[in-house]
Specification:
Helix content: over 70%
Distance between the termini: 72 Å
Shape: extended
Strand content: under 5%
Oligomer: single chain
Number of strands: 0
Number of helices: 7
Largest sheet: none
Radius of gyration: 24 Å
Length: about 170
């Protein structure tokens, strides 16, 4: 009998309006200002950049602490066991790092000290490249894959912008 009452109570509609998770997460211009959105994106991208930089410097499994037979101190442990896994890790990590730094650069475009921020981001990207190459065993990964991963977000963004402008141009000419 108690089960029937519990089921009946659960079936009754509540007085509270139903709020979908999607409604809370979506950006709404009437609720969210452009500054709030930009600030949230800057925080998220900065966290992604920091996490991916740290993961590139200290890859999964860490680095060898000593040189012995087939491994060298300071080189990735993961790369010694699985070249494929290490390459996939570096590709994905590099693409995430590059995407986050690109978004940061775009978001601070008209900020004061933009040039200095751009130089800092370029320096950090160079440092990231040097770090991942220093922990990668010699001949273990193909550098071109990492360069592709670092360039991919910029290539995709440029492609999207070209397509948008092409559509606008075609619409005007009709």
């Amino acid at each position: 009998m108690a089960d029937i009452e519990t089921t009946a109570q659960a079936a009754q509609p509540s007085d509270k309006p139903h709020v979908r998770k999607r409604d809370i997460i979506e950006v709404k211009p009437e609720r969210d200002s452009a500054n709030d959105i930009r600030n949230a994106l800057l925080v998220v991208c900065t966290l992604i950049a920091a996490a991916t930089f740290a993961a590139g410097v200290n890859p999964p499994g860490g680095v060898w602490q000593d040189s012995y037979n087939s491994h060298v101190a300071g080189k990735s442990v993961l790369a010694s066991y699985s070249k494929y896994s290490f390459t996939m890790f570096l590709f994905s990590n590099s693409a995430a790092f590059s995407s986050s730094t690109m978004v940061i650069i775009l978001l601070v475009c008209n900020f004061p000290f933009y040039l200095e921020i751009w130089i800092a981001m370029a320096g950090m990207t160079f440092t990231y490249g040097v770090s991942i190459s220093s922990v990668s065993p010699t001949g273990n990964i193909k550098s071109r894959y990492i360069y592709i991963a670092l360039a991919l977000p910029y290539i995709l963004r440029a492609t999207v912008e070209v397509l948008k402008r092409t559509r606008k141009f075609i619409a005007k000419t009709k």
